[in-house]
Amino acid sequence: MATIEAATLRARLADGSLAGPWRLDPSRSTVELHTKSMWGLAPVKGTFRELSGEGALTATGEASGTLTVHSASIDTKNRKRDDHLRSADFFDSAAYRSAFGLTWNQMGMAAMKNTITIHAVFLRG
Description:
By secondary structure, this protein is mainly β. It is built from two helices and ten strands; from the N terminus they run H-E-E-E-E-E-E-H-E-E-E-E. It has helices spanning 6-15, 79-86, and strands spanning 20-23, 31-36, 43-48, 51-57, 63-69, 74-75, 98-104, 110-112, 115-118, 121-124.
């Protein structure tokens, strides 16, 4: 798949040539976790290895879609911490996975549009 320069992407969004359904390519996409430890002493970084998504672009360049992040795929390079994050104390990955909807405008701004579900806690965007 070819890389599209920003100016070319804006032009193609404006002329509607990219309109239609799209599917996320997981091999070219990343969802990361960045936070501080409980006591704020050290940053914790991780990557979710499994994700999927799909969306649609309109002829006017507006986009909407769904991104699903599989919480069991968290990888912080620390197996004990990862197992704890997958447990019922945090993600409860055996029962839940995180999913949320995003919308984009022509300026590339994203905003949460739908419900986020993390460990059965619902947050509205």
